[in-house]
Amino acid sequence: MVLEKINQPNDIKSLTDEELKILASEIREFLIEKISVTGGHLASNLGVVELTMALHLALDLPKDKIIWDVGHQSYTHKLLTGRREGFDGLRKYGGMSGFPKRKESECDCFDTGHSSTSISAGLGYALAREITGEDYKVVSVIGDGALTGGMAFEALNNAARLKSNFIIILNDNNMSISENVGGLSSYLAGFRTADAYLDLKLNVLNSLNKMPYGEKMVSKIRKTKSGIKQLLIPGMFFEEMGIVYLGPVDGGNLHGIVKLLREASHIDGPVLIHVMTHKGAGYAPAERHPARFHGTEPFDIETGLPKNPRVKANYTDIFSTVMRKLGDRDEKVVAVTAAMTDGTGLKRFHNMFPERFFDVGIAEQHAVTFAAGLAAAGLKPIFAVYSSFLQRAYDQILHDVCIQNLPVVFAIDRAGLVGSDGETHQGIFDISYLSSIPNMTIMAPKNKWELSDMIKYAVNFGTPVAVRYPRGEAYDGLKEYRAPISIGKCEWIYRESGIALFALGSMVKTAVAVRDALKAEGYPCSIINARFAKPLDEDALRYITEHHKVIVTMEENVISGGFGEHVTEFYNNENCKDIRIVNIAIPDEYVEHGNVELLRKEVGLDADTIIARTIEAYQNVTE
Ligand SMILES: Cc1ncc(C[n+]2csc(CCOP(=O)(O)OP(=O)(O)O)c2C)c(N)n1
Ligand SMILES: CC(=O)[C@@H](O)[C@H](O)COP(=O)(O)O
Ligand SMILES: [Mg+2]
């Protein structure tokens, strides 16, 4: 096997042309086989096999720097840098990350996970190199989807100042997770669909160059602002920004890409190489369904079907259903996504109400302000977004939505531990960053029915409101508890005395298990479903102090600035010394990738840890 000859960086350089061809197909086979077992980001990786090989042939790692935007397409890079063995534990607890990690390899020079950061980071490296006088090449690899993010444009704008070499690879597969959207995407698609047109451009340029004074004419045309230039110069958009454009080159053409990389490395200043790749290349099911194989669960290689099909609905399914109903009932309801139509469950809404559905590209900041505009104009926007991706829109939430108290609904999916994507994607900060913003209301459902009720309640709430719910299977216990939602009011599940489990959202299910165990040991125990992280139910909190000795706050969020801290602050302000408070929350640290149940144990959100901490606190106050 040729792949077995690759054990460390730069081993690829000793392969013959014939071996390189074999290597490309062995890498694809390897990725399909491994990801079919572990799950992971398959389609994007299959598309960049030759591109990654070309980078490793043209560059010298770890001296040279490659920054992978999002980083979900870095699997071949991991293989070529001696991490083959890591694939058996890909995205598992203690195993290899699915993203580039500086702590994992010296060939990973910058951690990614969220989109559109690679050009900024690359520019940082390039300018640092000018200052320190070091000698390395810098290459940022950004997808056409990631290029729709505002940060990428901010960085391109800034890159024009650079005097030294900086290579940007545009990995253009004409896809984000699903279809890519927007004006830039159409511009790039033009390159793809008009091969004949491109040939025409090249022919015209070649013919002009051959004519007497032709070179001068071409140079003049390059300097004009006219449509003739548009016709003749590919990549004019980038050229006008001060970035030299090279390409487009076919993503399967290994030697073509190497040649362009070598040419590009002689250019002083920023240069963009446009590589046309194919999402899912080499595996028919992924080529047919690139979105499904963007990030996949374990699957059967023959059929491409999931090995463990889902039986129960997840929270995203419930959201999807309620959005369909709301769309039917109320023409003012509009839905916004930042390139996560499938992931957030908005596909049905999109199909049924295309004119009221907006995919804005990977642009969470814009999405929030855009939703604010929709709300200011009288519509009822619901921005469905993953908790971790909303992090970058903090100021837009504050400045554009909350100061004006506009009725934007934030449907925050993946709130809590998400598992295999790891520290960049854990949705464990939203309560903290949202609760610091005046005018914001935050809810979290205990089960699938409550998610439905909360979204319906939120859509007519009239001021900014967030509903946060976790990744995965929706809890279908406690069905009989369905009191109407009322602002800032909790829901009593069991009313006793002694211990009060004051649980938010996903933690109500855990509270049930904790109470069962406590009751079995003879402890009196109430469960209160908090429902609201903000505002808190102050009457209930006062009642709890009167009838309980210990209150245990439970949330799937970091401790700092979280629900529990707010409860503690309330009791401090009330000067309430009669109750012992135990805050169950995620410690002030990043949580790595792995199975969610294992992670819960790791961070102390599991029932056993909570039982032990509760008993200890109760015994302390009753002794
Ligand atoms: C800020 C942010 N929003 C959303 C995502 C989710 N996401 C991951 S990959 C991706 C699509 C990226 O498309 P592209 O850059 O073209 O890469 P491809 O998968 O096509 O190779 C999206 C939306 C993210 N990682 N970061
Ligand atoms: C790379 C990325 O950001 C997304 O592909 C993400 O992994 C999706 O996560 P879900 O699997 O939870 O939709
Ligand atoms: Mg793409």
TrEMBL record:
Residues 313-477 form the Transketolase-like pyrimidine-binding domain. Mg(2+) binds at residues 144, 173. Catalyzes the acyloin condensation reaction between C atoms 2 and 3 of pyruvate and glyceraldehyde 3-phosphate to yield 1-deoxy-D-xylulose-5-phosphate (DXP). The gene is dxs. Binds 1 thiamine pyrophosphate per subunit. Binds 1 Mg(2+) ion per subunit. It catalyses: D-glyceraldehyde 3-phosphate + pyruvate + H(+) = 1-deoxy-D-xylulose 5-phosphate + CO2. It comes from the Bacteria. Thiamine diphosphate binds at residues 72, 113-115, 145-146, 173, 283, 364. This is 1-deoxy-D-xylulose-5-phosphate synthase. Belongs to the transketolase family. DXPS subfamily. One of its GO terms (cellular component) is cytosol. GO terms for biological process: isopentenyl diphosphate biosynthetic process, methylerythritol 4-phosphate pathway; terpenoid biosynthetic process; thiamine biosynthetic process. InterPro entries: Dxylulose-5-P_synthase (IPR005477), THDP-binding (IPR029061), Transketo_C/PFOR_II (IPR009014), Transketolase-like_Pyr-bd (IPR005475), Transketolase_BS (IPR020826), Transketolase_C (IPR033248), Transketolase_CS (IPR049557). GO terms for molecular function: 1-deoxy-D-xylulose-5-phosphate synthase activity; magnesium ion binding; thiamine pyrophosphate binding.
